[in-house]
Fold this protein.
Amino acid sequence: MSEFRAEQDRPSAIVPRRPVERPISMAPPRVPAPARETPPALPFELAALQGQVDPALLAAAARRAAALEVGGDEVLRCHGVVPADLLAEALAAHLGLEIDPLDDDLPPRSSRLLEAACTGVLARIGPGGRTVLTVAPRGLGLRRLAGALASDPQLALHLRMAAPEKLSAHVRRVGATELAREAVLGLHARLPELSAVARGRHGLRWFAVLSGITVFAAALAAPGKLLFAIEAFLGFAFLAWIGLRLHSCRIRPSPSPRLDLPGRLLPVYTIIVPLYREAQMLPQLIAALKRLDYPALGSKCTKAVMA
């Protein structure tokens, strides 16, 4: 027992352990995959076309519309991506409105017919004297209409929807008389002080009447003298015209005032000159462009034309 206790009390030797060598892996470190960004929500007018138009095209139209601060449907219309009727049907279904084909015989309200082409709202008289409103919104007006319908769903019961192109064609077809009257007398009715109709109309009419009576009386009393008077008048008018032309040849045009502005304040212009089988005119054209008084134009016009 004493030997055993002595063996336990003897300090034991600590044997150091060698670290275990691990094989070096040659595989590249794993990089965590980036989180997928959620695509931004489409505006209302483009969300109506989901499932009918390529999503990438809708996203590009949304970015373009945001940059120009216009509606997404305007971008699609400009590029002719979606037909007008298909776009109107998709928007009407998204808004919960009925499509108006504008092919019935409902009489329009003449006082508001021409305004419909500008405002996109056409008022017509339906059965029983009820007013039928057809709207043709576009661009940001679609978002405002969607907001109005969301706040008052009963509004959809009184509205129909049509494509703006179809509404304009309907106004031109039905309101041809109103359009002609507006073109002739519209300015005189709204702003008579700016219309030539209100200036000297009665005076010229009386002058024409009196001149006709005088010529008729002179023809009855002395036809020979009347013919001589007409010839003298025409000859005097011809000589007066020749004198005016000769006098205008002696007038020197006044020089235009020169603007002393530094070149950095002047706008940049691009001059495009189309040519087709006119190589013999090219040297004269370049020389004429170099004579333009504009900063740094002479040094670049040759490259611009040759390009």
